[in-house]
């Protein structure tokens, strides 16, 4: 539509990204130290998941977290004429938002099939295939940026946060959610123990996740202020390890680390399933899978925002405050 013509950034930095939804990641497993994830493979996995006969069957986690992001947006008592959803997938946040809160929405994802199969929303929406690390929009464009459960696959998270900060208007807000470090610890431990037992060593089968202690620091370095970071856990029960892995594949959440092991032996998988059941199994025979979620809210600076008072500007000393407290205690008696 006409309203999105002025969004696009002209610098080469973003123009390249707009042309190529999956920019170079170093190209080979040898570059994994700086680029731990194969972004082309992640795009392929997400595209495959979006084309399944019932893509919504494995969307329960994304829909739940999308709803919790929308709740945080509703808690901010203002309207947002133009919003951006980074790593939108099939629109898990948009379906919970209302046109009274968000006027227009741009959805960005690396997987074109996810965008083509997006759920309908009452908000006027434009869908753009682009990478989260290379947002092809002008500076100071959006009143609100949201992102749910996609940034844990980004190779350069500090750069992704800087890109989000760049496209936000001053006094704009970013509301996001990421998987945290304890996500799928049951699966990770079971696979590692089974490999040690059967093969004498183990490879990473679950993606590395950001620690919550680092998250606030990364957002602050990207330029965000008035930060809020909190954590939550969602536990889902499955019949067994194989069902956990099947649903992860259906979510497009299969591992795409360069150093992943291409195949797991059948005996190792059966051993891992038995260890999972033995160590973590519920009394009804099911097994739990824990998903730790980090929620973050950060604002782009604007001079109208409240500022902390200058050092030394206090008009009451701590000594006087102590006296007041003593008088209050006497008054209560």
TrEMBL record:
Coarse class of the protein's main subcellular location: mitochondrion
GO terms for biological process, alphabetical: methylation; mitochondrial respiratory chain complex I assembly
Pfam family, one: Methyltransf_11
GO molecular function, one term: oxidoreductase activity
Biological source species: Malurus cyaneus samueli
Domain Methyltransferase type: 84-175
PANTHER family recorded: ARGININE-HYDROXYLASE NDUFAF5, MITOCHONDRIAL
Top-level lineage group: Eukaryota
Gene Ontology cellular component terms for the protein in this record: mitochondrion
Name this protein carries in UniProt: Arginine-hydroxylase NDUFAF5, mitochondrial
InterPro entries registered for this protein in UniProt: Malonyl-ACP_OMT, Methyltransf_11, SAM-dependent_MTases_sf
Family: Belongs to the methyltransferase superfamily.
Keywords, comma-separated and alphabetical: Methyltransferase, Mitochondrion, Oxidoreductase, Transferase, Transit peptide
Spans annotated as Disordered: 14-37
Localization terms from the record: Mitochondrion
């Amino acid at each position: 539509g006409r309203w999105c013509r002025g969004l696009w950034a002209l610098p080469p930095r973003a123009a390249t990204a707009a042309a190529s939804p999956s920019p170079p990641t170093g190209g080979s497993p040898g570059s994994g130290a700086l680029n731990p994830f194969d972004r082309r493979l992640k795009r392929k996995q997400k595209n495959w998941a979006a084309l399944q006969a019932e893509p919504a069957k494995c969307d329960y986690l994304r829909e739940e977290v999308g709803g919790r992001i929308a709740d945080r947006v509703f808690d901010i008592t203002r309207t947002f004429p133009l919003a951006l959803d980074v790593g939108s997938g099939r629109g898990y946040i948009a379906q919970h938002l209302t046109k009274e809160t968000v006027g227009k929405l741009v959805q960005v994802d690396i997987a074109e099939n996810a965008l083509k199969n997006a759920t309908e929303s009452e908000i006027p929406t434009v869908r753009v295939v682009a990478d989260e690390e290379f947002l092809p929009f002008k500076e100071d464009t959006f009143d609100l940026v949201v992102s749910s459960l996609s940034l844990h696959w980004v190779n350069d998270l500090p750069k992704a946060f800087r890109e989000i900060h760049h496209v936000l208007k001053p006094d704009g807000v970013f509301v996001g959610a990421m998987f945290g470090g304890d996500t799928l610890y049951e699966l990770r431990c079971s696979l590692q123990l089974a490999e040690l037992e059967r093969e004498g060593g183990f490879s990473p089968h679950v993606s590395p996740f950001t620690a919550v202690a680092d998250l606030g620091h990364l957002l602050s370095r990207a330029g965000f202020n008035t930060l809020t970071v909190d954590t939550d856990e969602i536990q889902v029960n499955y019949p067994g390890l194989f069902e956990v892995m099947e649903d992860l594949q259906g979510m497009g959440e299969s591992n795409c680390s360069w150093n992943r092991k291409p195949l797991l032996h059948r005996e190792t998988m059966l051993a891992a399933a038995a260890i999972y059941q033995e160590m973590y199994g519920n009394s009804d025979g099911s097994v739990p899978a824990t998903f730790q979620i980090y929620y973050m809210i950060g604002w782009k600076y604007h001079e109208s925002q409240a500022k902390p008072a200058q050092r030394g500007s206090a008009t009451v000393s701590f000594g006087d405050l102590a006296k007041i407290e003593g008088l209050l205690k006497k008054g209560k008696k």
